[in-house]
Design a protein that fits this description.
By secondary structure, the chain is α/β, with parallel strands linked by helices. It contains 10 helices and 10 strands. The chain has a 6-stranded parallel beta sheet, with helices on both faces. Strands 1-4-2-3 form a 4-stranded mixed beta sheet, with helices on both faces. The radius of gyration is 18 Å and the shape is globular.
């Protein structure tokens, strides 16, 4: 099965079902799981005609070499498919949470951003195709599995893609140290795309001008800015916290 690989965890498998169900050969589900999350996965798999195989825990552990699989493993095509933005947005059943990276050059930063995006339940990470690092081996390694669970979409024109998100009712928030509002003064219960600038240079002018609004992370120490993956984590988890407090998503 050199042409296939395993991904695991509910976020990874559900994300793959939504974005690229045809790449899934079969799903292995712990035979004792009958909770709502497992039923939702089975329902979605059924809609895409993907077979779900009940399996015992020892065999599941052996497939992926870990017990941290949450009781679900999928066998998928080895090649990571290039996705379009519409592939993700057309399948969303909840309010969008997107991360847009404007020209991040360091693969370690990209991998770390994917990892924090996975933790916060981001639906996709979007980046420009040119003048930015791609999903290379270093980024995939640093992502620690998040390259499988979070769709990574490259676009030829970032400003145009932001406008496409806006047409779908997604509020595009750019991060900038000089912004009047901080991230705690913005309604994050709406569909949101956080737009993060590159290392050192920040947002490009056209990207900045296309955003619906700008927000800053409060800085009270001596340093003026944060690493892009750290800043992404702060913004994404504040969105998650805000939505949970207001009952938009469950904890």
């Amino acid at each position: 099965m050199a042409d296939t690989r395993f991904i695991y965890g509910f976020h990874a498998v559900l994300g793959k079902l939504r974005a690229d169900a045809r790449a899934i050969k079969e799903i292995f589900l712990l035979e004792t799981r009958a909770d709502p999350r497992a039923r939702d996965l089975q329902r979605l798999a059924g809609l895409h005609s993907v077979r779900v195989v009940p399996i015992d825990p020892k065999r599941l552990d052996g497939m992926v070499g870990t017990t941290r699989h949450q009781g679900v493993v999928a066998r998928v095509d080895a090649q990571i498919k290039a996705l379009q933005l519409d592939d993700v947005l057309d399948t969303l059943e909840e309010k969008a949470l997107l991360l847009v990276l404007d020209g991040v050059q360091d693969p370690h930063n990209l991998g770390a951003c994917l990892r924090v995006a996975d933790g916060a339940g981001v639906h996709a990470v979007i980046a420009p195709r040119d003048r930015a690092v791609g999903l290379n081996a270093t980024a995939i390694k640093v992502a620690s599995g998040a390259a499988d669970s979070v769709p990574f979409i490259t676009v030829t024109n970032l400003a145009r893609s932001l406008r496409e998100m806006q047409e779908r009712g997604i509020w595009c928030i750019g991060t900038a140290g000089e912004a009047e509002k901080d991230i705690y003064q913005i309604d994050l219960t709406v569909p949101v795309a956080w737009v993060m600038g590159a290392e050192g240079d920040g947002l490009r002018r056209l990207t900045r001008d296309t955003c619906d609004e700008l927000a800053r992370i409060p800085m009270v120490g001596a340093v003026e800015s944060l690493n892009v993956s750290v800043a992404s984590g702060i913004c994404l988890y504040e969105t998650l916290r805000s939505r949970q407090v207001k009952g938009v998503v469950s904890a």
